[in-house]
Amino acid sequence: MQSSDKKYSGLRLGIFALLSASAIIAAVAVYLTTGKTFDEVAEEAAAERQAAFQEAAGEGVGPSFDVVRISRGGTGVIAGRAAPGSSVEVYADDQLVGTATADQNGEWVMILEEPLESGPAELSILAKREGEEATESEDIVVVSVPDRPDEDRFLEETGDGVVAVLTPRDGVGASRILQRPGAGPVGEIGDSLAIETLDYAPDGSAYISGRGLPRAQVRVYLDNRFLGSTKTDDDGRWVFQPETDITAGPHVLRLDQVVSAGEVELRIEQPFETGLPLDTAAAQGSVYVHPGNTLWHIARRIYGSGVRYTMIFRENSEQIRDPDLIYPGQVFKLPDRAENGAASVQP
């Protein structure tokens, strides 16, 4: 028994000696070929892996534009990338026009609070993160908004339109057209959430698709029962497949669009009946009142013109006694523009 233990002990010592010798030979080989120790090589490899991980998450990458959608009224949506957690500021020439925060994937999206002025402007990004120096975007977007009457931003998308061109800040390199005349944006904010199709597969499962603001979260409800959520792509398109089949009969689909801080910005409700074509004209839209909102502010965001607040006031006169007094938590129906001599609203 002791002889056996001694034999295995000797075997273990032999294996250990062999591994030690191999490690010494490998260390000598690394040193002779690179002039670096094992520890130095291991540290460099770890640093390279960390850099690759950070790059995949958007770390160390300067802020950039992905989407610029500007209406002829000067309102619109801008989206892009920056290091996760960065505070993103967008400037038109030297004027701050909007802010956002990059999410954990390094993506951000903002709605222009104030319409851009008519004429050419240079859009640029400044990203800030605690403990780091502010970073400017390598590219800028040269945008040109056509002249418009001061009190009317409901303009046709034909003829002279908005031009947006992505170009290097230093002028060296190729430019890329982000928006050209005639290819309008997703629409005014009030037009940028819609259910467009409802399809059924042979096995009875359903597929719902539509449009919204680029990179916005869309929550889907059936008869006020939460089904799940999805996210629009860079072009504002979304597709959702419920996990359960939709039973026969009449139903109401509801969409809540969330842009920032988890707050619902827009809502639409679409009645339908299984087996029948989807009547998108039956959709009804509404807007949520958040702290600091005024009817003028809401109308400017929804329709591109503050003076259109009277449309919302008339549609919701049963709950608005004074147009100067509205309260957080109120939900206002969106009127149809066709009734006001303008393009029909598809909320």
Q: Can you put this structure into words, describing what you see?
A:
This protein has 347 residues and is of the alpha+beta class. It has three domains: 2-56; 64-179, Sandwich (Immunoglobulin-like); 189-340, Immunoglobulins (Immunoglobulin-like), CATH 2.60.40. It has four helices and 19 strands. It has helices at 2-34, 38-56, 295-303, 309-315; strands spanning 64-70, 76-81, 87-92, 95-101, 107-111, 119-128, 135-136, 139-145, 163-168, 176-179, 194-200, 206-211, 217-222, 225-231, 237-240, 250-260, 263-273, 284-288, 331-333. The strands form four sheets. Strands 3, 4, 6, 7, 8, 9 and 10 form a seven-stranded antiparallel beta sheet that branches. A hairpin with a 2-residue loop joins β3 and β4. The protein is globular, with a radius of gyration of 29 Å. The relative contact order is 0.10. Mean pLDDT is 75; it is low at 151-159, 183-190 and 337-347.
